[in-house]
Amino acid sequence: MEITNWDSVLQFASGNMDLNLQEHDFSEYSTSSSTPNLQVPTPPHSTDGGGSPVCDDPSDHNVLVSISTTFYPGANLHSLPPDLALLSSDSVFFYVHSHIILAASDNSFLSLIPTSSSKEHSNNMVIHIPELSPVLNIILHIVYDKSCSHYSPSLETLSTAVNRLSSYGIDSKSRITPSTPIHTLLLSHAPLSPLEVYTLAAKHDLYDLAVPTSSHLLSFQLSTITDDIAEAIGPKYLRRMFFLHIGRSEALKRILLQPPHPHAPTPWCDFTNQKTLTRAWALASAYLAWDARPDISTGFLEAALAPLAEHLSCDLCKQGLNDRIKNLIVQWSVVKRTI
């Protein structure tokens, strides 16, 4: 709908009615009465045009209008003032620049925003967007390449926003890269929700997000993957995750296979005596290889193998065991931990 100024955008009540403008913080769906009010002129009478919503209850003399704390009329997001207002499904206003939105979208933002060549396009338009304000807020932050971490959005809300990008003609692969704030924010959820972040990255082929996230999936039990999870991840990234787990397990078995190198025979410790250490190493390594988990730590390996020295009386055998353990730790630490 076309209007003459931003005051008309905010027209919600009749001339004698007070209008309260409140900045929306998106940390919760409700707004707080303690949030500072945005000072704007009193809107004109609702019958002056613009088709703005009108208060249905004439006894209500205070109408609350929620405005984004980032995308508001006076925000310095661009050298030009905003020429477009987006209204979310829960009635929160976002003041944006149509040329920035159109440049990021290949379908005119779900065909909701007229192009500059369209006769319908003019400054100061209000477009109703079928998204809740927390989701729309994240989408706009992605478009403007701004961080929304101060809103502390949940991973569920972030995932919903990323999944909705394609609907608005926005390419997620070009918008979510390692240098962008949204990539950093999504990655911050990986330690606690690795499968969810990995699934989201796989769905949109966000390789640079999937790689660091995969290191947090080493402790994940592949046997617990359901058909729904496998379908959501897709064959490409599911195969990579399986190969990561299998590859690390096989690498650990190979590393454990070689026993400590024997030393030259001495009067008190010949090759026969050194077979005691070889057998002990074989038993310990077999135990570890049987349950060769891809997430096994170097500390666990050292704790499992170091006690073998307690049963050795030869100092050279002890030294050989310590050297072998150190070598094993180094080898295991350099095994690839990501897809």
Notes on the structure:
The structure is a single chain. With 339 residues, the protein is an alpha/beta fold. The chain is 42% helix and 8% strand. The protein has helices at 6-9, 98-104, 108-111, 133-144, 155-164, 172-175, 181-188, 194-203, 207-214, 227-233, 235-257, 271-290, 298-305, 315-333; strands at 18-24, 62-68, 84-87, 92-96, 125-128. Strands 1-2-4-3-5 form a five-stranded mixed β-sheet. A hairpin with a 4-residue loop joins strand 3 (84-87) and strand 4. The longest helix has 23 residues, at 235-257. The chain is rod-shaped, with a radius of gyration of 31 Å. Residues 12-19 and 27-56 have low confidence and may be disordered.
Order of helices and strands: HEEEEHHEHHHHHHHHHHH
* Oligomer kind: single chain
Cα end-to-end separation: 49 Å
Largest sheet: 5 strands, mixed
Biggest β-sheet: strands ordered side by side in the sheet: 1-2-4-3-5
Q: Kindly state the percentage of residues in helix.
A: 40-55%
Which structural category do the helix and sheet elements fall into?
Answer: alpha/beta
Segments where pLDDT lies below 50 for 5+ residues? Answer: 12-19, 27-56
Number of strands: 5
Please indicate the percent range of residues in DSSP E strands (runs of 2 or more): 5-15%
Number of helices: 14
Rg (CA only): 31 Å
Question: Shape from CA axes?
Answer: rod-shaped
> How confident overall, as mean pLDDT?
84
